[in-house]
Design a protein that fits this description.
alpha/beta; five-stranded mixed sheet; 42% helix
Length: 371
């Protein structure tokens, strides 16, 4: 048997998220490696791995590539002497390969990772922004980059607000109070988005599949939507925000339908800021209805003109909260080149600061559109 080797790897880039370390752990275990992976305070990730040379090399190759949604900007490594006390503890450990979180819970760990990413992006952006400036102007340059200043920010954000029910259950509360907390949270996120130059925001409130929930919860949800529209009517009108509805109108209550149609009509002349609620919406259902409309009209008008979202551009960024990592049919046609951002936070806890980090993450991505 070949000699056991131990390597220390340090990686920088968009790598501090939980999924990167979990992916590293799974890959290391498949290669029979012992050791650990952990986030460092400087925003980097460090791994210590011991095992057969082939497994070590495989791990190193994997680190160069990076996992899904991560991006490696720099990597350094060194092989360590196995007589080192720390290395000896790893080699003789029965724990296999682990993720060191230093007793931090999942959400705190996630937040610190995103904070480190934000700081790194601030530094990177300001450095490029200051190139060519005089020393005096560099000293006066604003150190705190605002989202509004970002050159690369989404024009259209679609949010899948997952986790309202789990948020309520963990607090020992009724599920509809979780939905109410989520609805209240949307107001601040909408305001934050428009204040920072985002022109279009879509919120998925109720899917075509949600009708299968118990009738009491469905009725309460419909009342929450009705209250949200009524209580924010003046906000939309006074701030000249166009209000739109995506989805079916034939299955919701008459009072809710009339309130939606009234606000749509009253704000139809506005164009600078646009908010849509996807209510009784499903991506497959939308495409099916669009095809039916296209065939019925027997026209040369493009199919996308029959989609609910005809007044909105394609989605640039789709955010899903609650720890789930799937689109569940949110705008399948309109999201062909959208970026996705998944947050472990339940939606009532997804505040402006987390949205800011999502926008910073988007700003640091390269969108090639197949080129």
């Amino acid at each position: 048997m070949s000699q056991i080797k131990t390597i220390r790897i340090k990686i920088t880039g968009r790598v501090q998220a939980v999924f990167f370390r979990d992916s590293a752990k799974r890959f290391a275990e498949r290669n029979n490696l012992k050791g650990f992976v952990e986030n460092k305070k400087d925003g980097s990730v460090e791994m210590l791995a011991s095992g057969q040379e082939e497994g070590i090399r495989n791990l190193l190759d994997w680190c160069y590539r990076g996992s899904l949604l991560s991006r490696v900007e720099s990597l350094s490594y060194e092989f360590l002497d196995n007589t080192n006390l720390k290395v000896d503890e790893v080699i003789n450990s029965d724990e296999g390969f682990k993720v060191n979180k230093h007793n931090r819970n999942y959400l705190v760990d996630k937040f610190l990772a995103l904070s480190n990413f934000a700081k790194r992006y601030y530094h990177k952006y300001n450095k490029s922004k200051q190139e060519g400036l005089s020393d005096e102007n560099k000293e006066n340059a604003d150190e705190d980059l605002s989202i509004k200043e970002l050159e690369n920010k989404p024009n259209h954000i679609a949010i899948i607000p997952d986790g309202n029910r789990r948020w309520a259950k963990e607090k020992g509360d009724a599920v509809w109070n979780g939905h109410r907390a989520g609805a209240e949270n949307f107001k601040s996120l909408i305001s934050y988005s428009f204040k920072n130059g985002i022109k279009y925001v879509t919120a998925w409130g109720f899917s075509t599949e949600n009708w299968s929930r118990n009738q009491e919860e469905v009725d309460m949800l419909m009342n929450i939507f009705l209250d949200f529209i009524k209580s924010n009517r003046n906000y939309f009108i006074e701030n000249k925000i166009r209000f739109c509805h995506f989805g079916r109108k034939d299955r919701i209550s008459k009072s809710l339908r009339e309130e939606i149609e009234s606000l749509e009509q009253e704000t139809s002349s506005f164009s600078l800021y646009n908010f849509a609620i996807a209510l009784d919406y499903g991506g497959q259902d939308e495409i099916r209805r669009a095809v039916e409309g296209y065939v019925k009209n027997n026209t040369l008008i493009p199919l996308e003109n029959f989609l609910d979202t005809i007044k909105f551009p394609e989605a640039d960024l789709i955010i899903r909260t609650g720890g789930e990592q799937r689109s569940s049919g949110m705008m399948p046609w309109q999201s062909a080149y959208a970026e996705f951002y998944f947050s472990p936070l339940y939606f009532p806890d997804f505040k402006e600061e987390e949205l800011k980090l999502a926008l910073l993450d988007f700003a640091n991505r390269k969108r090639r559109y197949g080129k």
